Amino acid sequence: MGQLGLKIPARISYKADNFIRHSGVRTIINQVLSLANSEAFNLCWIEGERRSGKTHLSITLTDLLINYKFQPRCIEGAEFKDFLESGQVEQISARTMPFIIDSAEEYFNSLTTGNSGAFVNFIEKLRVAGSLVIFLSRTSVQSLACDEHIMSRLRPGQGLKINMPADEELPEVIAAMAKQRGMVLSERKIEFIRRRIGRSIEAIERYLDRVYHLSSVLGRGVRFPILGDAL
Q1: Strand order of the sheet with strand 42-47?
Q2: For residues 18 and 176, is the Cβ–Cβ distance under 8 A?
Q3: How far apart are CA 21 and CA 17, in angstroms?
Q4: What is the pLDDT of residue 2?
């Protein structure tokens, strides 16, 4: 059943409450909050594999920063260029205005040589304000093919990486990912999945999408036969 096309995609609910702060991200969250509370400008690059929870992490960080009386701005990488050229950068004036750029590689991969001025201006505005910018990306800083004006500002930043959850955290992670897709699983079903899928978030996600698809197409509840067919 692994090759079955997903014609009925699961709707993912991106909410901080749906994100499990497992050991692979707790260190990142603590480090970001520490950087935000410092008095100086900071740049943080968070690398995560495909479907590792970067968007959920960006929303969680946004909510946490709001709780700490910051005024964060979360921007998609594909929209970052428009933001930089909109004139809003000139309004950056306080350290309480951190920026979170999700899917940052989409912006950097779109740049052409010599087109770095808007980004450099953005970073210098943040530097003067003593604020924080967080980039979340599938790729590392070293893999970017940007000019030296950009790279010289990214390299000194704090580099962090999203890691896999620990074995004992998997049941909670599986339950949360199923809930994102509108499925409530019993402990027995979660254990069935845990023993067969492994710790990869992407593998768990692909499997749960197949379960959701089969359940929807067949008009049946999420029972063990469907869990088995989705393997």
Answers
A1: 73-76, 99-102, 132-137, 42-47, 158-161
A2: yes
A3: 10
A4: 44
In the chain, % of residues over pLDDT 90: 72
The DSSP letter of residue 42 is E
Q: Which amino acid is at 229?
A: D
The CB-side HSE value for 131 (13 A sphere, CA atoms) comes to 25
Q: Give the chain's domains with CATH numbers.
A: 21-161 (3.40.50.300), 166-229 (1.10.8)
Can you state the angle between helices 117-129 and 77-84, rounded to 10 degrees? 80
Q: What is the pLDDT of residues 137-150, one digit of tens each?
A: 999 999 999 999 99
CA nearest to 163, candidates 7, 18, 27, 1: 27
| Among 99, 94, 93, 91, residue whose Cα is nearest residue 61 | 99
Half-sphere exposure of 150 (CA within 13 A, CB side): 20
In Å, what is the CA distance from 71 to each residue of 28, 62, 77, 98? 19, 9, 19, 7
From CA 147, how far away is CA 151, in angstroms rounded? 6
- Segments of the chain with pLDDT less than 70: 1-18
